[in-house]
C-alpha cells in the first residue's frame, strides 16, 4: 500500500485541498495524520499484469563491422524465416552493427527496456553478448521473457577475431594512453592478421 500526501491526492484527483481534507475527515478516504500535522492518504498500488501472448517475439541480429552487412541481412532473414515457421508474431526486428563486447549498444538497450514481447530470438548466444550471457538471461526471466537461441554452434571466427581486436585496443588505450595507443594497436592488429 502506497502513502501519499493529501495535497498530492487532491492534485491527482483534480479536487481542491479543502474537499480532500473533508473526505479524509469524514473517513471517505483512508489515511493517517502524522504528529507534524501532515496527512498521508493510503492508496492501493496498481497491479502489474503481463498479458503478453507467448508467441509475441523480438528478433535481434548483430555483426561486429560494416563489412559484414551482408552477413547481418542473411542472419536476420534466417531468424525471420524461423520465427514465421514457428508461429511467432514479430513485435521488433532489430539489426545492429556493433561489437559483442560493447555493453552500451543503443538498439539492444532499447529492446531490453521493452515489455511487449515474450521471446527474444537470436541466432547464437554470442550475438547477444560475448560475456555475461547468463546475467542477461536472468534479467529477461525476471521480466517474464525468454531467450530462444536458434543455433547453439560456435560463432563465426571473423566476428570473434574482431572482438579480440576490440579487447586489445581497449587495453592498449588504458596501458599506453591515447596517442601512443594508435601506433601500438595498429602494429599488434597487423601481427594478429598475418600470424
Write a structural description.
This protein is an alpha/beta fold and 195 residues long. It folds into three domains: 2-43; 56-149, 3-Layer(aba) Sandwich (Rossmann fold), CATH 3.40.50; 156-195. Helices cover 47% and strands 19% of the residues. It contains seven helices and seven strands. A four-stranded parallel beta sheet has the order 5-4-6-7, sandwiched between helices. The protein has a three-stranded antiparallel beta sheet with strand order 1-3-2. Strand 4 (56-63), helix 3 and strand 5 form a beta-alpha-beta unit. The longest helix is centred in the C-terminal third of the chain and has 38 residues, at 157-194. The radius of gyration is 26 Å and the shape is elongated.
Keywords, separated by commas or semicolons:
195 residues; Rossmann fold; 3 domains; four-stranded parallel β-sheet; 7 strands; elongated
